[in-house]
Amino acid sequence: MRKKILFITGSINQTTQMHQISLQLSEYDCWFSQIFTDSPVLKSLQKYTSLGDNTILGGQFKARSEDYLHRNQLNMDYGAKKNRYDLVVYCSDLIVASSLRKYKTIWVQEGMIDKPTFVSNSIKKLGLPAYFSGNTALNGSTNQFDIYCTASEGYSNYFTKGGTDSDKLFATGIPNYDNCSKFLNNNFPYRDYVMVATSDMRETYRYEDREAFIRQTVKIADGRQLLFKLHPNEKFRRAEAEIKKYAPLDTLIYQTGNTDEMIANCSELITQYSTVVYTGLALGKKVHSYFDLDELQSRMPIQNNGTSAKNIANICRAYVEFRGDRKEFLKQFTYRPEKITQDEEVYA
């Protein structure tokens, strides 16, 4: 029988990244599950409140992810109840079901990590579950998985400072953010606008003064065309009404569409806490972010012409076939990143 690998999915970005990695592991029996929990606390919150609806545990995140899996005819095993697995590939180390801790594990960075806060730092010091932080500030820094695949050396250093052992970390690059130049060839009808990519702070129970933010974008645009691309988790009608109230009448508003292609055609990019700021930086755009721009540059995802999925898959393959434990594997394993030509297609 073929060995089995379970890919844990979350947002649509995390889900498509996992799919890309699985396509490089066709010799294995690959399965997918939306992130789930067997924590009594989290299960109670899911059952009796709506708090989980705005997280990757449920709501539109789970619905969109599972719709994608269905459309691509991928094997689904929500809750990992159908099989025993030889390897589990995670999109987050904030929530880890105890039933999966017996397997070999690999973590794949999705994108940007939230800024540390007083709450997240306190949770870390007290040894409380990382998900209590309410954001991704501790993602990648829990040190509980066997191997960590990161966007760049800058992020590897960041996770080491956060508490994850350096010998577990491999700067593989991450799918979806490793070949940004491909977005320059697109059919998006508008060009040379100031683009605003919003974040779902209010939907994830964080404070935001949206009126002040919109007014600031208008000031930056200084009479130029504005285009807002809303976060998919946002309450669209509320966000649309606010933009129409505080921005010029000709402001373009998109709820859906290819964000990266919109960025490729803009003259300037305004973000809050969005990973898409890296697309802007990779394409040489002038960018604005709530993060320090020097820090963003130092952590910029590796642009390796779309080979990150292969890089991660090669580590998965080596580890799943290795007969020893994690410590023995890391002692003997040598990571060699893939190299491909510009015209080689990695993922369609």
Polypeptide structure, described:
This protein has 348 residues and is α/β, with parallel strands linked by helices. The chain folds into 2 domains: 4-178 and 303-332, 3-Layer(aba) Sandwich (Rossmann fold); 180-298, Rossmann fold. Helix content is 33%, strand content 13%. It has 12 helices and 11 strands. It has a 6-stranded parallel beta sheet with strand order 2-1-3-4-5-6, with helices on both faces. A 5-stranded parallel beta sheet has the order 9-8-7-10-11. Helix 1 (12-23) crosses helix 11 (308-321). The two termini are 29 Å apart. The relative contact order is 0.13.
Examine the secondary-structure arrangement and name the CATH architecture of the largest domain: 3-Layer(aba) Sandwich
Which structural class do the helices and strands define?
alpha/beta
In round numbers, the mean pLDDT is 92
Work out the count of structural domains. Answer: 2
CATH superfamily of the largest domain: Glycogen Phosphorylase B
Q: Residue share in helices?
A: 25-40%
Strand tally is: 11
Tell me the radius of gyration.
20 Å
**Could you give a short account of the major beta sheet?**
6 strands, parallel
Strand order of the largest sheet: 2-1-3-4-5-6
Order of helices and strands: EHEHHEEHEHEEHEHEHEHEHHH
The CATH topology of the largest domain comes to Rossmann fold
Cα distance, first to last residue? 29 Å
Strand content: 5-15%
Can you give keywords for this protein?
alpha/beta, Rossmann fold, 2 domains, five-stranded parallel β-sheet, about 350 residues
